[in-house]
Amino acid sequence: MWSISLDWIVLAVLVFWAVGAYNRIMRLRTACVQAFGALDSYLLQAQGLLGEWAAAQAGQADLAGAHRLAHAAWQQSLAALGAALAGARARPLHAQTMQGLESAHAAQYVAWQALKNLPGAPEDPAWRLRWQQQQAQTGLAADQFNTAVAQYNAAIAQFPARVLAWFFGFRAARPLQPALGGQPADTAA
To answer: Are 135 and 182 in contact, with CB atoms under 8 Å apart?
Structure first.
């Protein structure tokens, strides 16, 4: 009789542990998704600011030759970044999706640098300040996302929670590279 009740006690402890560990992993996953939501908002704001800058440039510069080609490349890179953001919004813990977001962000940044460095590109100190402030906010949001990802990855790597994570198919998330959160201050605008 005593052995039967001891078996039930052990089973109950295992079940309660499994439920607690599962809930902890789910809370950490939710924290990652929420942190990405904030980052997504700042990345969308950055796209809006870049759109304002490009509109100002189009109004001030003659869009012929190199300007037209650079502007078209920048518009394509901005569209690719929008598509990558939509994919990351749907799956912020998927490693390949986040790598695609980083690649699209890097391509958009290179295209923007080419566009802004053309002769005759407008320079607006007020816009430059807004851009730097926005990039600082984006950097903080990226850091918060990376912290949430690190906590989630640590939780699913611990034994015995690792067994539970394997059973439910939880995979390690990919933190973002620091460049996604913002560019160095001397090249930001």
So the answer is: yes
Within 38-88, strands assigned E span none
Average pLDDT over residues 74-94: 90
pLDDT, tens digit, for every residue of 111-130? 878 877 776 665 677 777 88
The Cα angle at residue 99 between residues 94 and 105, in degrees rounded to 5: 130
Nearest residue to 188 (alpha-carbon basis) of 53, 23, 87:
53
pLDDT digits (tens, 9 = 90+) for 127-152: 778 888 888 998 899 999 999 999 99
N residues, the chain: 189
pTM of the model: 0.78
What is the spatial distance between Cα 109 and Cα 73, in angstroms, rounded to a whole number? 11
Please say whether the beta carbons of 25 and 145 come within 8 A. Answer: no
Measure the CA–CA gap between 98 and 38, rounded to whole angstroms. 15
Sign of the CA dihedral running 55, 61, 66, 68 = positive
Q: Do 187 and 60 meet the contact criterion of CB atoms below 8 Å apart?
A: no
